[in-house]
Every structure is written in C-alpha cells, then in structure tokens.
Amino acid sequence: MSEYSYELPDAQAFLYTLRRYLDKTGDSTVAVLLMNSVCTITSSGTYSGRRWDAHSATLRITVSIDLIPKFTDNVLEILLAAVNTVFPQDAGFDIVDFGV
Q1: Range of 32's domain?
Q2: Is 54 among the domain residues?
Q3: Region 6-21: what's the mean pLDDT?
Q4: Burial of 34 (0-12, 13-18, 19+ CB in 10 A)
Q5: pLDDT winner (highest mean) among 3-7, 18-22, 52-56, 92-96
Q6: 81 is a domain residue
Q7: Which tens digit of pLDDT belongs to each residue from 35-93?
Q8: Residue 49 and residue 43: Cα distance in Å, rounded?
Q9: Is residue 65 part of a domain?
Q10: Helix (H), strand (E), coil (C) string for the chain
Q11: Residue 43: inside a domain
C-alpha cells in the first residue's frame, strides 16, 4: 500500500498557502510579488528519483510582465525553498521543475 495520495494539490489553494507562509515567515516582500498571480501544477507521471515511488511535478507561477525583473536569483531561491516546504509531502510528487 502506498503512503501517497497521487493527487496534485489544487494550484490556487497551494498558491494561497504559499503566500501566507511567506508572509508569516518574514518574506512578505516575496509574498506581495505573488499577488494576482496564477499557479499551475502538472505531472508527466514519471518518477522523480528523489523519493521512493514519488512522481515528478512541474510548478509554474505566472505573474504580470512588469513584475518579472523583481524575481531576482535571491527572490527565486526564497520562493523555491518555500515551495519545497509548503508542498504536501503525502501527495506523492516532488517539484523537479519550477519557474516564474
């Protein structure tokens, strides 16, 4: 029996949780950058190779073109760390591709 649900989280609910997490952990400037953004989470069904029986997933956050220059390497690093913390471990997916 698998310990995973193999159900991708609802992307907009995930984005809401991600923004709240960033805000509560002192990264509110990054959380503000995600206002009015759109999140998509997809999987090809291939194994990630990171955890036993976990599948790979891609997470994309679409933001206004005016905000793109604000997503510096440092901001993306903070954002990816938050994504890896907030993404539900029991879903059975590992984020292997991430982009804004």
Answers
A1: 11-99
A2: yes
A3: 96
A4: buried
A5: 18-22
A6: yes
A7: 999 999 999 888 888 888 899 999 999 999 999 999 999 999 999 999 999 999 899 99
A8: 14
A9: yes
A10: CCCCCCCCCCHHHHHHHHHHHHHHCCCHHHHHHCCCCEEEEECCCCECCCCCCCEEEEEEEECCHHHHHHCCHHHHHHHHHHHHHHCCHHHCEEEEEEEC
A11: yes
Angle at 27 between CA 96 and CA 57, to 5 degrees: 15
What would the two tokens of residue 56 be?
A: 């790979």
Contacts of 9 (CB under 8 A, 6+ apart): 41, 87, 88, 91
Query: What's the predicted TM-score (pTM) here?
Result: 0.90
**Domain count within the chain:** 1
